[in-house]
Structure formats: C-alpha cells, structure tokens
Amino acid sequence: MWKNVTVSYDYQGQQVTEELYLTIDLDGNQIVILPTAGVLLASQPCQSCDHARLRSDAIAEFLSHGRRVAA
C-alpha cells in the first residue's frame, strides 16, 4: 500500500484533508481509498494496464469527492 497523494474534500459539511491510499490487490484490481469518507474506488485488471493509472470512471468518481492538493 502506498500513501502518495494528499487530497482535500467536503464530507458531511466539513473540509477534510488527508492522504489518499492506492493499493493493488492479489487479483490485480487497483483500489483507491478515501479514509474519512470510507470511499473505495476500484479499477478492473487488464492485460496492458499501467498500474499507476485508474480507469476513467474511477477517476470521475474520485473527482466527484475530492481534488488533489498542490504540494
């Protein structure tokens, strides 16, 4: 599991800033977790996947919850 991106989003009326977690399970699914909101986003494995990238639908779902904070 890697903690590699700080995100900021609104959750239950409060602004939350935390580390986003990215991991890959044993089946090759990429999983992103927003810990406070308890949001799990998963992408399907594929033969030519770049595991540093998520499917566009997972990215769209993430963007509906938060944004990357500039370092």
TrEMBL record:
Protein name per the record: Uncharacterized protein
Top-level taxon of the source organism: Eukaryota
